[in-house]
Amino acid sequence: QVQLVESGGGLVQPGGSLRLSCAVSGSILRINTMAWYRQAPGKQRELVAVITRGGNTNYTDLVKGRFTISRDNAKNTAYLQMNSLKPEDTAVYYCKADTYGPSFYWGQGTQVTVSS
Description:
Helices cover about 0% and strands about 55% of the residues. The protein has about 120 residues and is mainly β.
């Protein structure tokens, strides 16, 4: 079974930083795109950032200039560096990986709380 293991979430003060990691394991896969989503209380899940295998990136305007998505293809791992965090960034963050086939996979989610 393919598994996406997320780490790096937690509690941080406004203006602080966190770095999330998402490691894909359990199968030999060639990952197409990897993405980070988030879901705040009472809100719909939204796309935060996406990165292609070649390294092209896109971000929601809400995080542009503050967050950076990156990946290490040899490790099948994606990262989300989050700087200048705001209370409105508080959410459960989910990693998603797409293969070149029909399969895609979600991580279990990790809580990010930005509060003083």
